[in-house]
Amino acid sequence: MNKRWLFPLFLQILCLFAPLVQSAKLAIVIDDIGYRTKEDSEIYALPNQVSVAIIPVAPYATARAKQAFEQKRDILIHLPMQPQNSHQPIESGSLKVGMDEQAVAQLIQSASRQVPHAIGLNNHMGSKATTDQQTMTYLMKALVSRQLFFLDSKTAGNSVAYQTAKKVGVKALERHLFLDDSNELADVQRQFNAAIHYARKHGTAIIIGHPRKHSVAVLKQGIANLPDDIELVSLSQLWRDEPLAPPKPFIMLFDIEPALTSVEPYQSVPLLRGVPKE
């Protein structure tokens, strides 16, 4: 082969593989929106790829949902769910183990009215509720009827919420890291850096935080200085990319004679496109 055609050929091959190289995706969700005016405002000043999860009974729930919708920001219903500790306080309008299917459906209907324009739902607390199969089945059926997706906040390691969502037909995602389990500035910064590392390793990282002073400071700086190989994405972008089930292989059956090039002795046919010969 003439050497002068080697470089153009190399470029053609490189172009074939270029689309396969993609930035790692980072999605950020801020829980507990709807209680505090100042902190909520700081979250809403962040890029609109940052999603907000609004507690339905919060005093500013509906107003915050409308504001987020105007910003074209993804909105989740941050639904209180029963924790393991029976003495732990929980907001009214929470999902509890033992509720029947109709009660769960009515609860989601009410929450949707309080948080308009929501595209999905995630759990607030809920380490007992998300481990109960029957409760999660009722919840996912209610989400299907309202065309909402589900984000498992993973407050319980043995949560069955994600698997149940998949079985029922709800598009679902899982939280990978918490930003601010510790409210110390150094710890919050460490968790944000961990999310960057996780995204690079796995292709996607979903991190959940809260409207707190140090969290806002870390997010402002971190988002403004994201590495070139990390893309800040909305939760809905990941939701749209999440298949309900693995795609089946595409198989075509032809009831015709095979081409001559597929039958021995094989016939050589010149390429219609390719590197020209001298």
Automatic annotation (TrEMBL):
Assigned keywords, A-Z: Signal
Pfam families: Polysacc_deac_2
Signal peptide interval: 1-23
Domain of life: Bacteria
CDD domains, per database record: CE4_DAC2
Keyword Signal assigned: yes
A GO biological process held by the record: carbohydrate metabolic process
Entry protein name: Divergent polysaccharide deacetylase family protein
Organism, scientific name: Muribacter muris
